[in-house]
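BUG: 3D viewer hangs when loading the predicted structure for this chain

Environment: internal workstation, default settings.
Expected: structure renders.
Actual: progress bar stalls at 90%.

Input used:
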Amino acid sequence: DNGEWVTVCNGYLEENDIKMDDVILYDSMSENNQKTKDVELSRLVRSTYLAEDLKLAYNHTCQLCGTRLMKTRFEAYSEAHHIRPYNKTHKGDDTIGNMIVLCPNCHSQFDSLYYAIHPHTRFVHCVDETDKFHLTKMEFIGVHILEQKYLAYTWQLFKKR
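Structure tokens produced before the viewer hung:
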């Protein structure tokens, strides 16, 4: 039975779904819904100036798909992706040679290693070889050059997928 397979794979049970009565009877002012919990968060501090300058240089246009998202009539939105992730696990650097400008969708796909840039050819590779961006070459402006060491690191992770 397909329902049993779903239950085994991800613990889903239809009887645990939220019902309309749950929504109607939900009391946002209930004491149970007002509980707070202190959480301590630790993160690396990034240089937002580098990312902002790079996003402006590309006019907030995704280097992969060419999308330019608008937040308001006068304000565009893009994200700076670190080729080698800037965190305690991967220890990437917060430098222009480790960043590209992407839309949120492409950024998410690069983060999950759906896409990676080959360190020698500089072509974008995709786990789905039928993807329209598989084997495309991203455009770079001015002196924006990705550093080999970041591409090589992420390429090794991509190849393990």
